[in-house]
Design a protein that fits this description.
The protein is of the alpha+beta class and about 120 residues long. It has one helix at about 10-25, and strands at about 30-35, 40-45, 55-60, 65-70, 90-95, 105-110, 110-120.
Length: about 120
């Protein structure tokens, strides 16, 4: 029986597959567009198979996560406290979450899709 490495067709195929896998693993960050489906899955232009909700990441500005904005001040709060005459205060902000039908901007980080923001027509 001939050895595996003596079959030129098999050897060529293995070389091509090895090269393609190396190229795929070295691929840089790729930017893409996608759409959130009715069930929350993500379908992108370059990967048309639905990625289930929970299997892709979402940046906090579109992921319905709270964050605090503080450090600012303005007039109008002087009478509320005697120690804080600058009106300095903070606000908790909850951006809107992505919704089914939203067109989204996606960054591919290796094999993980990350929804960066919602895209709207100008």
């Amino acid at each position: 029986m001939e050895g595996f490495d003596r079959r030129s067709g098999t050897n060529k195929l293995a070389t091509v597959l090895s090269h393609r896998m190396k190229v795929e693993n070295e691929s840089p960050l790729m930017l893409d567009f996608g759409e959130i489906q009715a069930n929350g899955s993500l379908v992108t232009n370059t990967f048309p198979i639905p990625i289930p909700k929970g299997d892709y990441s979402v940046c906090r500005h579109v992921g319905s996560l709270n964050f605090t904005i503080s450090g600012g001040g303005h007039a109008g709060h002087e009478e509320q406290t005697q120690t804080n005459h600058t009106g300095a205060h903070s606000h908790d902000v909850k951006p809107p979450a992505i919704m089914p039908g939203d067109r989204v901007f996606v960054a591919w980080v290796q094999n993980e899709a990350v929804v960066v923001d919602v895209i709207e027509r100008s």
